[in-house]
Each structure stands twice: as C-alpha cells, then as structure tokens.
Predict the structure of Probable 6-oxopurine nucleoside phosphorylase.
Amino acid sequence: MEVAIIGGTGVYDPAILTKTREVKVQTPYGEVRPTVGEYNGVEVAFLPRHGAGHTVPPHRINYRANIWGLRRLGVKRILATTAVGSLNPEMRPGEMVLIDQFLDFTKGRPSTFFEGGPDGVIHVDYTEPYCPELRGAVLKAAAELGYKAHDHGVYVCTEGPRFETPAEIRMFAKLGGDLVGMTNVPEVVLAREAGICYATISLVTNYAAGIADGPLTHEEVVALMAENNARLKQLLMRVLVA
Ligand code: HPA
C-alpha cells in the first residue's frame, strides 16, 4: 500500500476504487477501518476523516489512530481533502488551494506521537510542512484538467466545532492567514512525524464569517462540496496515475 486518501467534508465514498474491502488496523490509539482498493493498478487506502456518516466532529477525530493506522498499512503518501472558509478575496468559493503553510489555533488535541520517555525528546522541522513533490503533482494534474488551483495558501486551523467570530477572522487575516478550517492540524503534523509525504487539496466552500453576508451553516459547506465533488474526484484520480 503506497497511497492513501483522507476524505474531508463531502468526500465520503471511495467510489473511484475497485476491488474494495474494509480492513481493520489496530493502533496504540484505537482501531481504524480504512477501505482498501485499487485504482488503475495502484493500491489505495481511503479514510473518511469524519467517519463514514460524518459523525465525528473535528475536535474528536482520532488523528493519531488515523495516521498510525495508515503508516502500519505501509502508506508513504497521503493526499487529503479539506473544506475551508476563505479570508482572502482572491481565493473564491469553488476554487482549490494547495496550502503550503499553517497557523495552529487548536487547543486541546493530542497532536504528537513523540511523548518523551524512553524515545527521548524529539523536535521535528516544519519549514516545509506539506510535501513539495505531492503538491507539485496535484498542481500539475489540476493544470492539465483546466482547474484553477492556487499554489500557495496559509491555512489557519481552529479548534471548532463552532465557526469563527468576525473578530477572529480579522485577526487571522492580519496574521497572514488565507483560509480557515478545523482539521489540518494535527493531521499534517502527525503525517510528518510518521515520515509520510502529505499534501492537502483545500476546496473553498465559503467566505469566512464577517466577510460572507449573513451567518454560516454547515449545510452550505456540504452543498458547495457536493457541487465540486466530481472535479475533486477527477483531480484525485489524475494524481493517482501520475
Ligand atoms: N470556518 C472553519 N471551517 C470551515 C469553514 C469556515 O468558514 N468553511 C469550511 N470549513
């Protein structure tokens, strides 16, 4: 198993895969059950981040079990999807962004495998948190398909599950954030700790609170993802054969 897809909001089914089966993987953090299948001769594992029926909120996702489980399957590259709100007027709803940096505003999540003890104290470099090779492959595939994909973006990860206040969004914009979401930290962090090449395709589903007119709803996020699901799938498939 070389490649895994972690599907975010709106990406729940591994329909692009054939010969699928659910596997159970035990980890020190609990069991994970990715679907394993094939696309065009490539073995792929698929894991819906929020559970098959979108039942797990961002702050309760067992990120460590997910990444450990994929690592145990031998996964070397993870391509994830995330729904995001935009703070940047140039990153519009419906557009994709290959984020390359993050700002961590999460609060209470277990976000490391390195807890000290016999393994010692380990500090990992995040100068380049997202895998440049995989980001490059996605950007190339997007260009070939004629999809607009921004090649940089600073992702602000909030604790959720609530959406942000307009004051928070103004602060994030001042700090250099482009996009806001609730799940990429610690996912990207753990992937790096596990030595897995990781990239995320962020799909802008809305302008962030205070920039959008009126209140935000989860339903509009899901609706925008549904509208763009086919394009996202096309892009994932193209990257898998690259
Ligand atoms: N904020 C946080 N997470 C999100 C948003 C948002 O506006 N849109 C999609 N995920």
User: Anything to note?
Assistant: The chain has a mean pLDDT of 94. Residues 75 and 128 are 20 Å apart (CA to CA). The longest strand covers residues 197-207. The chain is about 30% helix and 25% strand.
